[in-house]
Amino acid sequence: MGRRTIGVRVLGAALALAALAAAATGLLKLRVETTVDSFLPAGDSTVTALGDNARTFGGDPIVVLLESPQPQGLLLGDGRLPALMRLEGALARLPDVATVYGPATIMNQLAITSQDMLARLSGTRDGLRAKAESETQGKGSSASAVKAAGDAAVADFDRRYGALLVRGLPAGLPTTNNPDFVRNVIYDSSGNPRPRWHFVVPSPTAVSVLVRPREGLDEPGTRRLVSAVRDAVGHAGLTTSRVTVTGVPVVTSAVTDEAVGEIPLIGALAVVVLLGRFLLAGRKERLLRRLWPLAAALIGGVLTLAAFGWTGVPMSFGAIVLLPLLLGIGSSFPLYLGMVADRRKVLVMSAASAAAFLSLAISPLPFVRELGFALSLGVLLTVGATLLLGRRFAPSPPEPGDRVRTIGGRRRWALIGCLVAVAAAGWVVLPRLDVRASPEDVARGLSALDEARYAEQVLGSSGEVSVVLRGSDAQSPAALNWLSQAQDVVIARFGDRVRPIITAPDLLGFLGETPTAGEIAAGLQLMPPYLTSSVLSPDGTQALLTFGLKLQDLGQQTQLLDDVRASLPPPPAGAHADVVGLPVAAARAYDLVRWDRYPANLAGVAAAGFVLLLGLRRRADAVRAILAALLATGWTIAGLWAAGQSLSPLTVALGSLATVTAGEFTILLLDDTRPRRAVRWACATSVLGYLVLALSRIGLLREFGLTMAATVVVSYLAALACVSLGRRPVPGPRAAAPSKAELVEV
Asked: Which residue ranges run through the membrane (predicted)?
């Protein structure tokens, strides 16, 4: 062996090690995030409004629901309220917490404010007496006259505020150590929580603590915060019958944990399943030749994940879906390159598949766009790895298969009519299929969603939506009057589906129906800023009505929010009102996905068709591939509609995904070498790749895997139909198979 050969091999080994190290480093840098933002339309006004609202008032809360076996057992009794207050204080001190709302802190703030009010009233009363006595004494009056002047000065004050103090403080001094004070403030005469405190005391046996994260908290920060909240609750020393930690951040954190855990498991399972498939096929081949297609697809998938790691772009569900899909679909490309004489045809077909995947980038949902970029890059990297490294391991060309049987005469036209009619029916009913685009749908099957539903039963709601009034003075009498009218309208018309959580009119209800500007200002001074900041911005330009919603069908929720928005009275001059919140942004995502069905399905067909028409020598083959994609998509949609199934954000672009397999199968079946057996194996490989996803605990991925596995089978049938019905039978003997010398080695 010459020195030059040794040098080349050493250099190749060094480059391979360097590539392996780079890939490993990229994988270590990979971040998996399933934030709510990935399910919402990026850049949309509803998402912007959601961020602005979170910046001022905090994000969607982590809800700590504490239950006691005894009524009022968590607030009344020796040491119970102080223990709860310590827990709320510990939660408020956690990093990335904007604010914490809990019954103990509310009681403490009300007690402090009440004490301050008493001190101010007492000081004011003493000041009036001292001033009157000093003026009378300066006139040389007698001691009795001085005392009478002082009594007269405070008599009017006592008439105005004395009765108020007697009514307002029937339970004694305002202190958290006074159980009568706590009971009178929180509970009514029957022992039930007063309506204004339902958001922190939802029932006699339960209290809730709302931990609002800061705006813009990323997924790692959210996971750390959720873990810290659980730890704080676990060490609080409270006597409870049940503790539930839930909320949108908790659910998304659980989905992320599941996704991170499933990446190696689902990926390894896909490798094992497809390893068995490649070991069973081509037993006459050497082991390396049989496994090379799987290895090439694995290289492409790993490099794609590493690329996301190196660029710092986080992945969501693409990290789970990528390996099974590329191992199932991508591993066929090395086979194609080894079995088809015209390598250019395979490269064009690969580029068309990458273009079809890339068309997912038109989705309004970030996680679908990310998946499209990842799959497109994965296909290109798999083909690149095959071309670069696969010369030694390329499988031998298969034995020529029989020509696909063609059908002629009347039967041909009758079948064409039936098949096209079914596909057309599918395309027609596409707008009638339900689309689920709610972030909650992603967590189906996880315990976090079960806990959220349980908390909803206790709290009466599981999501928040706010009516926001913005203007130069959102604390004016006109603004407060509008907020009261808006709250009354919403409760009167939609009270069976929404419930007030905390609102400015409820907090300032003690001022009466038509308070003046001065009375509002005085009332705000009486209320603790801890509470007023939950409904009024510090600069006085925003005021909130926050309502709770239950988990429900997203279509019904969208209609509800539209009706709420339409029912609001005209805002005061110089102000404007809006409905904001995660349910609003989710409803917007639902609308965009729902109305984006035809573009989402046709984009992949158009992109792949353009590449095929441009790259294939026989344009008729490209036309048949496009037709197969349209047929496969239409048949699958018709099947979903007949079975009463719905679409998800992933399967709503089913046409773009079906184009990949339908186009490949059609082009291969039309090839002169007629590799029918290889196409059947490719179909089985793709089906296995999708079916692996059916084992995921994440409902969205399970449904995606099952739907796409069926779509691959339908794509194979559509390809057979387009080949057998797309041309007339050719008389004469079967064409001779090409020799191995005519095949281009890869």
From this structure: 263-280, 292-311, 317-339, 346-365, 371-390, 411-430, 598-616, 623-644, 650-670, 682-700, 706-726
The answer to whether 661 and 329 are in contact (CB under 8 A) is: yes
The identity of residue 41, as a single letter, is P
Answer whether 485's CB lies under 8 Å from 503's CB: no
H/E segment holding residue 413: helix 409-429
Instruction: Tally the residues of the chain.
Output: 746
Choose among 589, 440, 462: nearest CA to 60: 462
The predicted-structure confidence for 426-482, as pLDDT tens digits, reads as follows 999 998 888 775 656 677 778 888 898 898 888 888 888 899 999 888 888 898 899
| Contact present, 376 and 326 (Cβ < 8 Å) | no
**Cα separations (Å) of 172 from 111, 161, 169, 179, 307?**
11, 16, 6, 10, 67
Q: How many CB atoms sit inside 10 A of residue 156's CB?
A: 10
Give the whole-angstrom CA distance, residue 639 versus residue 644.
9
Q: What's the gap between Cα 21 and its chain centre?
A: 33
Are residues 426 and 638 in contact, defined by beta-carbon separation less than 8 angstroms? yes
Q: What angle do CA 142, 145, 147 make, to 5 degrees?
A: 110
| Model pLDDT for residues 10-40, shown as the tens digit of each residue | 665 666 677 778 778 877 888 777 777 777 7
Cα–Cα distance for residue pair 364/45, rounded to 1 Å? 13
Q: Whose structure tokens read 């007030």? A: 500
Tokens in use for 604? 């992949």
SS3 463: strand
**Cβ burial, residue 654 (10 Å; 0-12/13-18/19+):** buried
Q: What predicted TM-score, i.e. pTM, was given to this entire model? A: 0.77
Query: What is the β-pairing status of strands 542-549 and 463-470?
Result: antiparallel
Question: Can you read off the two tokens belonging to residue 698?
Answer: 């994440």
Residue 142, CA distances (Å) to 145, 148, 152, 258 in order: 5, 10, 15, 85
Asked whether 229 and 44 are in contact (CB, 8 A), the reply is: no
DSSP readout, 471-531? SS-TTSHHHHHHHHHHHHHHHHHHTTTEEEEEEHHHHTGGG-SS--HHHHHHHHHHS-HHH
Q: Which two tokens mark 740?
A: 């191995």
Residue 193 DSSP one-character state: B
